[in-house]
Design brief:
five-stranded antiparallel β-sheet, 483 residues, 2 helices, mainly beta, 37 strands
């Protein structure tokens, strides 16, 4: 060992000793309370421990380095390999870099929240409902790598709870107030915005639109109407639309309540005169109703008239007529495939169609029965029900529909007191309520498969996977939370 190296080493030790005694000055008042702590041996041990910690801190993290764009990304493993929403996982591999802003982690198509990263590991939280089994993919600055041979298993946790109303208590007039102390007359139709405000059409003698604020846990009347019925938000959630059901209210078609006014101010949308000199929608009872990012769609009770109304210009256009829906039908816009889904109470069918379909020889959309695709149900309402794919599924009296942001469609079944789910592959299963084949009504919160409903009539879904149900003859609104 050279003299120069020994001198340098001693200087480092002296520097560490000075730092040690500086820290020791702060420790002495406590040390003096304990006997025997002045021994040279103990001080030496404390110093060694201190110096060791200093040296360890100075060594740094060899994996704290940026991504190398000239090398491949490698994903080796994930741990744990199973869990639910918010489970903390570590994804190990190579060449991840050290900048979380440049990294995307996907569980199937759902993006995970990246908490921390170093070149050989990513610390992330599992996203909501990516699927029962997820393929893990990591993207760094445009390059990607997939974990081979292992999939993450997602455990779903779900529950049904009552969020507004008092079970089996219908009052006239309905009462506002704390959500679980307020009352409905007959909650029939529901819609929800992107902030958790649930709008409810309290129809017949209820004669009003109620707003449930899930943040404030209160229910408020925002609009009094004659017979409120089907309702919908536009895709931007800037307006809530609700129809006047009865023909006696024509030429008034529906109301538009703005989010900017906290849904307290309404705009009126009226029928218009067509080229033949008659009103376009006419004096028909309205039933099916939906909205996308541009239009509001409205169909009469038996399909005699089908119109679209521009949300900005208020122009009314006839886009279909004499569609044999039966007495009642209900409608929802599915933003994933851009189609309208129509449920038919009389036949237990689900239809879907493109509302923008313009056949040859026309300049405007035109919808006929032949343009509608029959996707779910046998077409016969029988004394039993069964799960299945497409036409193999057998359903009851189908009412309101809701669509989530994964393209799943949910349908209320009054006959069998349950909620059905149709996935993008047209698999139809009981989502909540008694199992297929049963027709048990009642009132029970809890797990979806154990929950009970009494002729639920409408349903709606939020961006983050909450489902709200108008449990009409229990006189409450329920929430199905799936995580």
């Amino acid at each position: 060992m050279t003299a120069q190296f020994i001198i340098l080493n001693n200087l480092i030790i002296i520097k560490q000793m000075k730092s040690f005694f500086k820290h020791l000055d702060c420790m002495l008042p406590c040390l003096r309370k304990t006997t025997g702590l002045r021994s040279v041996a103990l001080l030496a041990l404390v110093f060694v421990a201190f110096a060791g910690c200093r040296n360890e801190a100075n060594t740094g993290n060899e994996y704290d380095k940026p991504h190398d764009p000239n090398k491949a990304i490698v994903v080796k493993s994930i741990g744990p390999s199973k869990g639910g929403l918010g489970t903390k996982v570590v994804i190990s591999g190579e060449n991840f870099g050290n900048d979380p802003s440049k990294i995307n982690v996907y569980f199937n198509t759902k993006k995970a929240l990246v908490m921390k990263v170093q070149d050989n590991a990513i610390y992330a939280l599992v996203p909501k409902q990516p699927g029962e089994y997820s393929t893990i993919k990591v993207e760094v600055e445009g390059r990607e790598s997939v974990l081979e041979g292992v999939q993450f298993q997602y455990f779903i946790r779900s529950t049904v709870t009552t969020v507004a109303g008092i079970w089996n208590n219908s009052t006239n007039p309905p009462v506002d107030g704390p959500a679980l102390e307020a009352t409905f007359y007959r909650p029939a139709k529901v819609a929800v915005d992107d902030e958790g405000n649930v709008m409810v059409a309290d129809d017949q003698n209820g004669k009003r639109i109620r707003m449930i604020s899930t943040k404030d846990n209160r229910m408020t009347t925002v609009l009094e109407v004659v017979v409120p019925w089907s309702c919908s938000f536009n895709e931007q959630f800037s307006y809530f639309y609700v129809m006047e059901r009865n023909a006696a209210q024509r030429p008034l078609l529906f109301y538009g309540l703005s989010k900017e006014s906290n849904y307290m101010m309404s705009d009126l949308f009226y029928d218009q005169i067509g080229e033949d000199g008659d009103r376009i929608f006419g004096n028909y009872v309205a039933c099916a109703f939906a909205a996308d990012d541009t239009y509001v769609y409205m169909m009469s009770e038996r399909g005699e008239r089908f119109v679209r109304v521009h949300q900005q210009t208020k122009k009314v256009e006839l886009i279909g007529q004499n569609i044999p829906t039966g007495q009642y039908s209900h409608m929802v816009y599915n933003k994933v495939d851009g189609k309208l889904y129509l449920s038919l109470e009389a036949s237990g069918r689900i239809m879907r169609f493109d509302p923008h379909h313009t056949p040859a020889g026309r300049t405007t959309p035109w919808i006929t029965w032949d343009d509608m695709e029959w996707i779910i149900g046998t077409g016969v309402v029988s004394s039993t029900s069964k799960e299945g794919n497409g036409h193999d599924a057998q359903l009851g009296t189908l009412c309101g529909l809701g669509a989530d942001h994964d393209g799943n469609v949910y349908i209320c079944d009054q006959k069998f007191h349950c909620v059905w789910k149709v996935d993008p592959l047209l698999n139809c299963t009981v989502f909540a309520g008694p199992p297929a084949g049963a027709a048990v009504s009642g009132y029970r919160d809890g797990k979806p498969e154990e929950a009970q409903f009494n002729r639920p009539y409408d349903i709606t879904a939020t961006y983050d996977g909450l489902i709200y149900v108008a449990d009409t003859y229990n006189y409450v609104v329920r929430c199905i939370s799936i995580q």
